[in-house]
Amino acid sequence: MTARQLADELEIHIRTVYRCIDSLCASGVPITADSGPNGGYRILGDFMESPLLFDADEQKALVHASIFAREAGYPFSAALERAVACYGVCAGQGFGYGVPRV
């Protein structure tokens, strides 16, 4: 996909695309640029970002933060609870705490 196609698809400026590509490359994402009429940017191979890993105290803090956010009326508390629940599922481990649903 070309930088122009990415900019149009994401509704951002083309310079933003170049900055993002530079940032991704700097963080270790294997991006290649192909020139020519069928050229563009692509991620090499079957690159997968490593999962986030939190220790037990960090997990507990996330769960408590989501509960506090819900009780305080934080407008994105449901999204925070979904993220906490997803992390437990995606990491293949339970938090050991129930995250109440709204």
From TrEMBL:
Residues 2-42 form the Helix-turn-helix type domain. It comes from the Bacteria. InterPro entries: CBASS_pafABC_assoc_protein, HTH_11, WH-like_DNA-bd_sf, WH_DNA-bd_sf. Coiled coil: none annotated. This is HTH domain protein.
